[in-house]
């Protein structure tokens, strides 16, 4: 209160000063590693003054914008985000941005994918080849742990795969953590025609891709 007065009277001015703590936000946990198919919870803890608004973002994109629903995501409360059936698309950086009339703050967290079943990223197509030709069939798959491949012909395992046979197979892990395999057939015979299948498996599951090889 500030007062001023003289013989003619007095005046006073009242000023109310409110001191509030700095607005701070954190997401717990800050790093999560979740296996494919499991659920994840992200909790935005807020400290300081009163908050008027909480917004959630995934890799820079606002979640639930304009009331939009999100695949496999739901809000248990304004502070808690739940992700059901975590998949590769859910990886990345999550942010909660909190604000009031005076300031704003943000917290962030990283969600990493742990073990996941194989997914075919490349598969060979149906082909028509002449007898005695050379052919190479290619499959690629991603997964964690890295998948292993086996090859089938008309649903039967191809067992004679060696440098001494017309069938050879290779398998390697590329820089994108995809496993790539080739089935190579030298001097194709008519009985090499049929339905070929590459099967990728790891501890989380199995997937496959198939296409025909027609020999004429």
TrEMBL record:
Keywords: Cell adhesion, Disulfide bond, Immunoglobulin domain, Membrane, Repeat, Signal, Transmembrane, Transmembrane helix. Pfam families: I-set, Ig_3. Its main location: membrane. This is Ig-like domain-containing protein. It comes from Anopheles christyi. One of its GO terms (biological process) is homophilic cell adhesion via plasma membrane adhesion molecules. Residues 37-112, 118-214 form the Ig-like domain. GO terms for molecular function: cell-cell adhesion mediator activity. It is a single-pass membrane protein. It is found in: Membrane. One of its GO terms (cellular component) is axon. Coiled coil: none annotated.
């Amino acid at each position: 209160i500030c007062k001023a007065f003289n013989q003619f009277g007095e005046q006073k001015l009242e000023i109310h000063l409110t001191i509030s703590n700095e607005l701070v936000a954190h997401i717990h946990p800050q790093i999560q590693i979740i296996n494919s198919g499991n659920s994840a919870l992200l909790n935005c803890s807020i400290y300081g003054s009163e908050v008027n608004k909480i917004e959630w973002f995934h890799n820079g994109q606002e979640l639930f914008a304009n009331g939009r629903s999100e695949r496999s995501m739901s809000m248990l409360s304004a502070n808690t985000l739940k992700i059901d059936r975590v998949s590769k698309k859910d990886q990345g950086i999550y942010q909660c941005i909190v604000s009031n009339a005076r300031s704003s703050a943000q917290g962030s967290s990283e969600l990493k994918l742990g073990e996941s079943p194989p997914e075919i990223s490349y598969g060979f197509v149906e082909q028509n080849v002449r007898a005695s030709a050379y052919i190479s069939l290619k499959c690629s798959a991603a997964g964690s742990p890295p998948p292993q491949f086996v090859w089938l012909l008309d649903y039967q395992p191809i067992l004679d795969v060696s440098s001494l046979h017309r069938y050879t197979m290779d398998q390697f892990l590329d820089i994108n953590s995809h496993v790539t395999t080739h089935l190579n057939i030298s001097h194709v015979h008519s009985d090499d025609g049929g339905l070929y299948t590459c099967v990728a498996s790891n501890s989380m599951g199995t997937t496959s891709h198939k296409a025909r090889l027609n020999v004429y």
